[in-house]
Each structure stands twice: as C-alpha cells, then as structure tokens.
Amino acid sequence: MILEGRTLAAKIRETLPQRAEAVRQKLGRPIKLCAIGSTDDYGAYLYLKKETEAAQKTGVQTEIFEVNNQTPANDFLALVEKLSADSSVDAILIPRPLPAHLAATNFADRLAPQKDIDGMSNINMGNLFLCKTWDEVLALPGFASSTAMAVVRLLLFHGVKLEGMEAAVIGRSITVGRPLAHLLTCQNATVKICHTKTDLPRALKDADLVCSAAGTPGLLCAQWLKPGAYVADISTNWNEHTNRLCGDASPEELDAHGVSYSPVPGGVGPVTLAVLLENIILSGERKL
C-alpha cells in the first residue's frame, strides 16, 4: 500500500479559506503570520516562501523577516520578543536550520506559545511531553510539531492501527524525531528511537512501523524490515544521480519486499504543509 498524502492534505485545506474569512470578519483584520527565515540555506528559504504563499492563498497576511550568519543574536532575540508581544501578529514560524549562533540562543524561551505554530517553544514542547493520551494531545492549548503531527494523521487516515505496534523512529531531533516518538506513544505504540549510533538492522527487524527522518538517501534498506511493515518516509532529499527528490528508502525495494510506505514527494510533505496552514488558522480562531 502506498500511503499517499495529497488526498488528506486536500481534505485538511478544503475549509481553511472559509475559516480564515470567518476570523477576518470577527477580528476586523486578516490572520497575520510572521516568519523569520535564514537566507543562508537556499532550499529552506525557498520552502519558507512556498509556505507563506500557500498561507496567502488561504487568506492569511504574511511577512518574512530575513536573518543570516551576520545577524546579531541580540537583534534576532529582540525580533522574536517583538513579534511575540505584537497583538496584531497571530502566528510565528521560525523554520530550521538557523545560523549556528542564532540556533544557540534561548529564542525558544521567548517565543509566545500561542503563536508558535510549529511547536518549537519550550512551553509547547514541555506541554506535549506531559501528554499521555491522544485526547490530551488534541486538547493542547498550543501546538505540536507540524511534521510529527502530519505523520500520525497520515497513518491514521490510511487506517493504520498504531495501538500495540512496535514502532521505530530514525532521528532524534527536537523538530521531528522526539516529538513524533512521543505522539506515537500517545497512540499506544511502543516506540524505539534510533540514531547514528544505533545498529539499524538489529533495531528494525521486528518493527511494525518505521518512521525515517534521517535525511540520508538510501539509509533505510528494505531487507532490514519484515514484510507487512509500514514506512513513513519523512525526509526530502535530493538525489544527485537521478536529479529527483527522494526519501531515505527506495520505493522499488520497499514494494518488492511487501512494505507499505509513504512516497517522496507526495507523502508526508503535503500533509505537513496542510497541518501548518491549519495551525495558522487555529492561532487566529483562538483569539475569538
């Protein structure tokens, strides 16, 4: 089975323009998203532009503030605090990667959790890890990682029963790996977190579900997995040999081995964008 994401993404996005318009009428202004993006990473910055353009089509006002490796850390922190305090700003997005000296600051402490639509703030992260059940996740006053939420929602959309599953998450980043592992435990899966020091063939041989966010083409070998397993391929990599986007696993190998998987592109990616857009709308709706 191919766990395609475009159908679910379209379903999530279908009512967002109407919801944005309803907020505009009640607030007397459109929902406003402010993004802080690094121009040092060309690919990430282009994707940020794509996200803001998608938000604009939904009826959201957007503004991008550019930073780079020359931006003083104090200026960056002051901007985060200013946007967090500005009542006319409803949503804030600060995509990684950031320049190292900015990433090393305590900006996550200064990011208003009610505006933090990608679950980066320490308060939102802490609230997520206090959740034990999925109902508690859905009742969070802030937000969780859009990518992590997209993975779980995609699996549920395709009827994958997570309760009781042996799951493995490859990658322990605070943006995807760790939040996703916790969300899966809230769905009553038993989760193993894998990283660069993990013996992957040994760790994955009994896994019912593997979620790979390593960002390394060809890292995940189908032969390590048992037939009937599921793979959520989260990474979006550029294959220099084929000049095409790809994930961490070969879809042809997964197919041949009897493993269901999310494709790259067209799997987790479009759902992540849809969840992010939905969070922007929620940030405005929660002000009503």
UniProtKB/TrEMBL annotation:
PANTHER family with a match to the protein in the record: C-1-TETRAHYDROFOLATE SYNTHASE, CYTOPLASMIC, C-1-TETRAHYDROFOLATE SYNTHASE, CYTOPLASMIC-RELATED
One example of a Gene Ontology biological process annotation: methionine biosynthetic process
Stored SUPFAM superfamilies: Aminoacid dehydrogenase-like, N-terminal domain, NAD(P)-binding Rossmann-fold domains
Catalytic activity, as annotated: (6R)-5,10-methylene-5,6,7,8-tetrahydrofolate + NADP(+) = (6R)-5,10-methenyltetrahydrofolate + NADPH; (6R)-5,10-methenyltetrahydrofolate + H2O = (6R)-10-formyltetrahydrofolate + H(+)
Binding residue positions for NADP(+): 171-173, 236
UniProt GO MF annotations: methenyltetrahydrofolate cyclohydrolase activity; methylenetetrahydrofolate dehydrogenase (NADP+) activity
InterPro entries: Aminoacid_DH-like_N_sf, NAD(P)-bd_dom_sf, THF_DH/CycHdrlase, THF_DH/CycHdrlase_cat_dom, THF_DH/CycHdrlase_NAD-bd_dom
Domain Tetrahydrofolate dehydrogenase/cyclohydrolase NAD(P)-binding span(s) in chain numbering: 146-285
Protein species of origin: uncultured Elusimicrobia bacterium
Keyword set, alphabetical order: Amino-acid biosynthesis, Histidine biosynthesis, Hydrolase, Methionine biosynthesis, Multifunctional enzyme, NADP, One-carbon metabolism, Oxidoreductase, Purine biosynthesis
Residue ranges of domain Tetrahydrofolate dehydrogenase/cyclohydrolase catalytic in the record: 3-118
Highest taxon, organism lineage: Bacteria
Recorded metabolic or biological pathway in which this protein acts: One-carbon metabolism; tetrahydrofolate interconversion
E.C. designation(s): 1.5.1.5, 3.5.4.9
Quaternary structure (record): Homodimer.
Entry function: Catalyzes the oxidation of 5,10-methylenetetrahydrofolate to 5,10-methenyltetrahydrofolate and then the hydrolysis of 5,10-methenyltetrahydrofolate to 10-formyltetrahydrofolate.
Protein name: Bifunctional protein FolD
Family: Belongs to the tetrahydrofolate dehydrogenase/cyclohydrolase family.
Example of a GO cellular component annotation carried by this entry: cytosol
